[in-house]
Structures are given as structure tokens and as C-alpha cells.
Design a protein that fits this description.
505 residues; alpha/beta; Aldehyde Dehydrogenase, Chain A, domain 1; Aldehyde Dehydrogenase, Chain A, domain 2; 2 domains; seven-stranded mixed beta sheet; six-stranded mixed beta sheet; 40% helix; binds nicotinamide-adenine-dinucleotide
């Protein structure tokens, strides 16, 4: 049954004025999952105008934090009630495995609940400790106020959770929002819009538009009535979004972009654990994760053993129907992505990397249709090679040998990206010392990919600007205001030197 969803503008669902719709394809078998409207620029303006009106009227920002928290909890409850539908949509539209799809819905619920809880402790106003000399007998306090109208542009790999990472803190802080889901996988977010509708927010506070990134995404980034744009996607598009945001009205911009994260096995790592962890780090969601551990750095003394064990374990992984709970690896998102990955694999072979697993197409009935890539491992990779430098966004691992811990850190940091990374060691102190030296926004020690709403996430270097999640993720949707209350007894005397004669009675 085709799943067709609508635009959500000013509290109303509509099919949209454009008759042509975007078709959503199941990457496992190329069947049609559903369709969504291709919004027009006029509809984009209408969504922004609704969000502007709602913000300026104070229907949302004027509520108390406790009232906004209640609304977030109502949304979380609606999402929970809809978990089965959302999981099904994520499996069908983005090739998510059952575990990944459930994990994504759970993370969305946890994020909404976390920001509702955060609103219980006062974050809006804080007095600055008195310092009479510096403050000239005044009382000073800092307020955190909503920014205004926010636009959220979301990618296809984790559409629901990455959408909610923006929506939950934006709404928590009192902003209104227009969300643009990814064209490849828009359905779960549109189903989420229904959950928001049922939760009963004031009209215009939350809006959602589907359509091309080039048209709708750019229109939002450049819109003069939008005060902040939060973008997750490729570094290339992120740069474009930032320049549009700057040129239009210098809107506040947060960017969560690409990565080429290094996963470092130290000499004393527990190899059983580290090898399974390394497979999870590069193969989760078929490698289509921004912080995937795609460069595995291994001490030369353990190199051949690690390669052999990685290959043995990876060969046993179940690839196929992502809806089967036993499946570890589903398809990649599209034909275009499959071809891009294949080009990186043949390029790596030409550059002299040693292919030790994968590389060839999968055969069998399951794989006749759909976009499949076998887990692929390259040994003898030099960090200068293209596969070690560019983000592939597929199940491809580069295993790189190192001779000293300093060299491992240098290789890890030799990248234009700085999103994630891993360190595997039995010695926590040593692992923390290495983690501190990695120029990335997140480092996992003896683990990988685990994200929680309490901890900020984001990138160094060309992996992004700003942070999502945690208290920082909430503050990223606020403006800072300083209020200076003058308490001096002889305030009139302050102006005497400036006003001179005029102050004499
Ligand atoms: P993408 O940059 O092509 O698209 C991301 C979003 O931007 C989509 O909604 C798309 O429609 C929209 N878009 C496309 N062109 C646009 C334009 N010119 N102006 C405005 N919006 C535009 O990325 P993708 O292929 O959807 O996702 C994969 C990329 O996202 C990878 O590079 C990955 O590393 C990155 N990513 C980063 C994070 C993170 O948190 N750092 C998380 C997930 C994905």
C-alpha cells in the first residue's frame, strides 16, 4: 500500500499546489513506498510566514518552560504510540535494519523527553556574581531568549532522529520551526508531523515542507524572515547553506557535516572486543553514518592478525532484507550512492590498496533488485590515498598500519574532517590521553556510535559548526541578552564629566 503524506503548514495538512509529487523508493527492492508533495516557493513562503506570525505573537515563546515541556512530552508520547509505523517507514524508505530503525525512534523519544526535563531547571535567566569594582554598582543578569523562526534541513540517513535533534531543542527554547525532510526518505518525518499535530501545538509553531534541496532548502537558508538555519548533510552543501545564510540576513547557522573518522586500536586493546567494535563502527547502517569509523588504525605488530580476524567475522554477517531482525546489513540508499561507492572501490585498487574483502557485487535472488554493496575492507592503505581522505558513505574500511602512538594520533588528525573517533585500550588513562589529542567532536573509548541526548555532538574542522544535543544543543537555539540594572546611589554624578555645564542646576 502506497504511503502518501502531505505538507504541514500553519497547523494544516495539504496535498500542496504542485501536482507533480516526489516518489519514495525502497532501496531494498526498488518498489515504490509512497509519495510526498514537491513544495513550491510560495508554499515555502507561507510556511515561513506562519512560523513568523506564531513566533511574533508569543503564543509559544510566551508560554512558561513548564508548559512547553508538557507539550514536548505529549509529542514524545504520540511518537511512542506510533513507534511501529515509524519503524516500518524507516525500514522501507531508507533501508534501515530493524535494530537501527527502533534505535532511531527511541533516540527521538529520548531527545524530546530530555529537553522537556532540561526545561525544569532554570536556564533562561542567571544573575552574574556581583563584582562591585568591575560592575560599577549594578546588578547584571543574563537572559536566554528564543532566536525566532528556525529552519531545519535534514539528511536521509537518520531522518527522524536528526530531525528531532533540531526540533526538540528549538521548540523547548520557544522558537517556531520549518522542517525540510530529505527527498530520499521523507516519510518518517512526515509521520512525525502527524504526531506533533495530535499533540496540539498552537498553529504555525511547527511546519514541514518536502521538496528539492536545491529549491526548498536554498529558499529556507536564504529566507529573510528565518532567523536560524540548522543543517545536517554533506560538507559541500553545508558551505552553500552557510553562504546563503550569510548573504541573506546573516542568520545564525549550525552545521553538522561529513566525516572520515579514525578508530585507533592501541597495542593493549582487547582484540576480541575491538574487532567486533571496528566492524560495528564502519558497517552500522551500511556505513552511511557521518561519524562512521572508516579508518582503522592498527599497530604494525598486530596488523595481519587484525585483518584476518576482521575478514573472518565480516564474512559471517547477514546481508539482506532489512526488515528481517537477523539482518546486520541492509542496502545503501540509492543507485547513485551505490555507483559512487563502486567508483571509490575501483579507485582504491588502482591507487594500490589491497582488497581483502568485498569489492564484487552480491549474487542471489535477494540482490537482483535494490542497491547493495558487500562489506569491503582494504589493507595497506596509506592515509594519502583517496579512500582514506574522502567520505565514501558506504560499507568500506581502510586499515592503516602505524608504528607509534604519536604516529597514530598524527594520522588520525591528518584529515579535513573532525567528527568522531574511537580508541581501544585496556588502560583507561592511556585511552583518555589519546582521546584528548584527537581533533574531533566525539571520541568513544572501547565503544562506537553510542549517542545520547545528554552529550553534545558536532564537528571540528570541516565536519561542522556548533553542537546539537546536551545543554549546548538547547542554548544553540537561544540568543543571549544582558540586562544591566544600575544600583548606584549617585547615578546623576556618572554623567557629569560628559554633560558638563548641562548637569549644573
Ligand atoms: P546532502 O547535503 O545532499 O543533503 C542534506 C539535506 O540538504 C537534504 O535535506 C537535501 O535535500 C538538502 N539539500 C541538498 N542540496 C541543498 C542546497 N543546495 N541547499 C539547501 N539544502 C540542500 O546530504 P545527504 O546526502 O542527504 O546526507 C549525507 C551527508 O550528510 C554525508 O556527507 C554525511 O556525512 C552528512 N551527515 C552528517 C551528519 C552529522 O551530524 N555531522 C549526520 C548525518 C549525515
Amino acid at each position: 500500500m502506497s504511503k502518501d503524506y502531505d505538507l504541514y503548514i500553519n497547523g494544516q495538512f495539504s496535498k500542496g499546489e504542485n501536482e507533480a509529487r516526489l516518489t519514495v523508493i525502497n532501496p531494498s527492492d526498488e518498489s515504490v513506498v509512497g509519495s510526498v508533495p514537491s513544495a513550491t516557493l510560495a508554499e515555502t513562503d507561507a510556511a515561513v510566514a506562519a512560523a513568523r506570525l506564531a513566533f511574533d505573537s508569543g503564543v509559544w515563546s510566551g508560554l512558561s518552560p513548564a508548559q512547553r515541556a508538557e507539550a514536548l512530552l505529549r509529542i514524545a508520547a504520540e511518537v511512542k504510540a506510533d513507534q511501529e509505523t515509524l519503524v516500518d517507514l524507516l525500514i522501507k524508505e531508507s533501508g534501515s535494519t530493524v535494530g537501527k530503525a527502533n534505535g532511531e525512534v527511541n533516540l527521538a523519544i529520548k531527545t524530546l523527553t530530555y529537553y522537556a526535563k532540561l526545561l525544569q531547571s532554570p536556564y533562561e535567566e542567571a544573575a552574574i556574581a556581583a563584582d562591585e569594582e568591575a560592575a560599577l554598582y549594578s546588578h547584571n543578569f543574563i537572559r536566554r531568549e528564543a532566536i525566532g523562526v528556525c529552519a531545519a534541513i535534514v539528511p536521509w540517513n537518520f531522518p527522524l532522529s536528526l530531525g528531532v535533534w533540531k526540533i526538540a531543542p528549538a521548540l523547548a527554547a520557544g522558537n517556531t520551526i520549518v522542517v525540510k525532510p530529505p527527498s530520499e526518505a521523507p516519510l518518517a518525518l512526515l509521520a512525525f508531523a502527524k504526531a506533533v499535530h495530535r499533540a496540539g501545538l498552537p498553529k504555525g509553531v511547527f511546519n514541514m515542507l518536502t521538496g528539492s534541496g536545491k529549491v526548498i532548502g536554498e529558499a529556507l537558508a536564504a529566507h529573510p524572515l528565518v532567523d536560524k538555519v540548522a543543517f545536517t548533510g554533506s560538507t559541500e552543501v553545508g558551505k552553500r547553506v552557510m553562504s546563503l545564510a550569510a548573504q541573506s540576513n546573516l542568520k545564525i547557522t549550525t552545521l553538522e557535516l561529513g566525516g572520515k573518522s579514525a578508530n585507533i586500536l592501541l597495542e593493549d586493546a582487547d582484540l576480541d572486543e575491538a574487532i567486533d567494535g571496528a566492524l560495528f563502527a564502519f558497517l552500522y547502517h551500511s556505513g552511511q553514518v557521518c561519524e562512521s569509523g572508516t579508518r582503522l588504525l592498527v599497530p604494525r605488530s598486530k596488523y595481519e592478525e587484525v585483518i584476518k580476524r576482521l575478514v573472518e567475522r565480516a564474512e559471517k554477517l547477514k546481508i539482506g532484507d532489512p526488515g528481517d531482525p537477523e539482518t546486520s546489513i541492509g542496502p545503501v540508499i540509492s543507485k547513485r550512492q551505490q555507483e559512487k561507492i563502486a567508483a571509490y572501490i575501483s579507485g582504491a585498487i588502482k591507487e594500490g590498496a589491497r582488497l581483502v574483502l568485498g569489492g564484487e557485487p552480491l549474487s542471489g535472488k535477494t540482490f537482483e533488485k535494490g542497491f547493495w554493496v558487500r562489506p569491503t575492507i582494504f589493507a595497506d592503505v596509506k592515509n594519502e590515498m583517496t579512500i582514506a581522505r574522502e567520505e565514501i558513505f558506504g560499507p568500506v574500511l581502510s586499515v592503516i598500519a602505524y608504528d607509534s602512538e604519536e604516529e597514530a594520533i598524527r594520522i588520525a588528525n591528518d584529515s579535513i574532517y573532525g567528527l568522531g573517533g574511537g580508541v581501544w585500550s585496556k588502560d583507561y588513562r592511556r585511552a583518555v590521553e589519546v582521546a584528548k589529542q584527537l581533533r574531533t567532536g566525539t571520541v568513544w573509548i572501547n565503544s562506537y556510535h553510542l549517542l545520547s541526548p545528554i552529550a553534545p555532538f558536532g564537528g571540528y574542522k570541516q565536519s561542522g559548526i556548533g553542537r546539537e544535543l546536551g545543554l549546548q544543543g538547547l542554548l544553540a537555539y537561544t540568543q543571549t541578552k544582558h540586562i544591566h540594572l544600575d544600583l548606584a546611589n549617585d547615578r546623576g554624578a556618572r554623567y557629569q564629566r560628559f554633560l558638563g555645564q548641562a548637569t549644573k542646576k
